[in-house]
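Students often ask why we bother predicting the structure of a whole assembly rather than each chain alone. The short answer is interfaces. A chain on its own may look different once its partners are present, and contacts between molecules only exist in the joint model. In this exercise we take three input lines together and write out one structure for the complete complex. Read the inputs first and try to guess which parts will touch.
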Amino acid sequence: MNSREHILSKIKAIPRDEKPLPKIPDFSFEGDLAEKFTQSIQFNKGEIVGAGDLAGIIAQNKFKKILSLVSSFEALANTELPADSHQLKDLDLAIIEGQFGVAENAAIWLTDENMGLRALPFITEHLVIVLKKNSLVTNMHEAYKKISLAHSGFGLFIAGPSKTADIEQSLVIGAHGAKSLRVVLM
Amino acid sequence: MNHPQEATEFLKDAANAKWHDDTLWFVRDKRDKVSKSVPEWEKLRNLASDIKDNVLANLETYLVEFEKNAKANNIHVHWAKDAAEHNQIVLGILNEHRCKAIVKSKSILTEECHLNPFLEKNGVEVVDTDLGERIVQFLNQPPSHIVLPAIHLKKMAISDIFHEKLQTEKGNDDPYYLTQAARKHLREKFLAAKVAITGVNFGVAETGEFVVCTNEGNADMGVHLADVHIACMGIEKIIPKREHLGVFLRLLARSATGQSITNYNSHFRSPSPGKEIHIVLVDNGRTEQLAREKFRNSLKCIRCGACMNTCPIYRRSGGFSYGSTVPGPIGSILSPGIDLQKHSSLPFASTLCGSCSDVCPVKINIHEQLYEWRQEITKAQGTNAKSISMSIANGIFAVPFAYKLSASMMRGALKILPESITYSGLNTWGKQRDLPELPKETFKDWYKKNRK
Amino acid sequence: MPQVNKIGLFIPCYVDQFYPNVAIATLELLEKLGCEVVYPSGQTCCGQPMANAGYERDTVGTAKHFLKTFKDFDYIVAPSGSCVLHVKEHSPSVPGLESEQQVTQHKIYELTEFITDVLKIDSIQGSYPHKVGYHASCHGQRGLRLASASELHETPFNKARQLLQQLEGLEWVELTRKDECCGFGGTFAVTEEALSIQMGKDRLEDHISHDVEILTGGDMSCIMHLQGIASRNKQNIQFKHIAEILNEAIS
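Now the answer. The structure tokens for the assembled complex follow.
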């Protein structure tokens, strides 16, 4: 018997009572979703910026290598998506589009089509996600309803910049992934 | 391992022990605050618990469904009955790709299987990429907490080891500075690795996808730059449907660190073109635990670490005092199932205060299982241990007054208890505590005189 | 107040031996509240120390004795959350007396919950001009749910506080960690002595740093442990069971 059969038959041999799957009730809430989303992303150490602020942010931070997968911000970009993720290692800023955001925790849903290369939102030093205000949903239950069973090889809920508190619980922004997350709510 | 001895040792550095307690209490406090901002919190815990009950009742069905869907998505699925087989499978994949260096994000399962030493023995360089894990790896230590691996270390200790390993400035213990040094160091490792290993937070039967949650982004940095992704998953990590992720992702980070969600929640469903994803489904004692009805629902654990942060014992004795891969309350109900003899002191490393059960996002009755393990352990230990353990137990109440009262009074009060009471408990009770003042008469005597 | 019938007073063995005043206060308090109370003198230890040490199976005799001792009472009341919890949840099944056991487990109450839930008394009239810190024993708190737990998202309540707070002049002290364990834990106090002491010291520190004058609670076992540490370290704080405070305040 191979290990697969071994494990499965061992489990089958254990008498267990039937336990029904619960139904998930509707936990959505009323309220200004953009306001809630803004609070949530600030709590996660991200921030909301205006579309018009980006040029200033780029200049102020002296970002050199900039990539945009959002057509309306292509004017700010000066590099294209490479063939290999490793070539993104000196990318200062990536501007990508999020599919929708979740107000309760500022999680933003991205799939392969938003990233081009899966490494992009992680390897870039700084990240901007453009998000439509009317895409916001209340909570994670609504979020998964929206995703449903849509197929993507890779999907990501991103909710803030890379962070760690592994040294004495001191919060440090910018562990391995992007050092900042700015969201443009359109 | 003997928990009382280890705890005594830990408490000798009183300042450090207090810091450890305060730091973890701070995390527990954040968890309290954020959980109370979710009106349906207790309903979510019930849902999560019910979903996991359903999983354990139908585990074989979900595993087969998961396998079928994962395979359809071009994911390679492997099955390992124990740690040794798991390690061999991982090594086999590495050999196939002639890979001699890997990056690995946090996975309690690979700790449990002792994958790192195994790979290193086979000539593979393993780089743990979670910052806390990298720190303890530099120090040749295991993680002391499943979510906060380096929580036992002060920043100067980290500064010292970084100075040695990463040539940071001597004495600079600024967390930002140290983190940036690690970022630079690990970036090189990420860019060079051909194979990346991750753990799994949730495997979804319905879609064959699996979800990995981090705050640092280290799991993603590893797997998206590598050609091959190996995900190691305990068989109990399966959940039935995608919609159930909504319940668990709402609970996990809030319970773990008091965040509303981890910053990166990656759903792996199929590999990028030209790349490979392998998933190793591991039993390693889980089916045995499943068969133990009283302890079955310990397998509901989603490894948030909340029970550690809340545990007054864990906070004051540190993760290493448990001598098990998973420390703290949940570890104390999982570990005896793996090695009863070795871990027999763990279920007693508790006052049965019940805080662990109340913070648990999947409502595992941890403290009740600690009580049940005590019953099992005394059975397994036989009669020899009995007189010792019982005399200690009885000693708490019986011995202090036996010390001052006559033997006849003692027997009168406790005639139900056997007379194997020894006086060993007395010295321990009185070492740092006074005995109560002895009253002139017992209540029983008073009652006889004053009523009826 | 509903007419309450016969109450069997269950006094934990160590309270009988060490703290007769707590037992007397419990008896007098219940009598003042109009109850008919009897103390069955044949009672013994409930078996908790053995069960928590892993020998529940050896306490069948104790459990049987308990059932017989209290079978004729309508209610059983004890000034201890811990012992009540044991009888309710951890008494081993007694062959032949299963239904009696079930009845017993439903008619046994910890003192404060008996007053608030059975006697339906919301507040006690009296005066107690002191700064009081409340130690929530874990078995009462999370076992019997005598107060809301800080871990749970639930409407705050506390049965002891409900009774104490109405007393004239009593100042209820808010603690930093309102329901953390004191480290007594039965066998734990000896088997894990170092931890037990540290936990006790930390609890005391919380009360003392908030200028608590009298530390009270519903379980003398926790208080015995805390008092033992405070006494050894010559800390200036008094200890009283809640029954003593209520009984004193009423008169």
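Check your guess against this: The CA atoms of residues 145 and 208 of chain B lie 29 Å apart.
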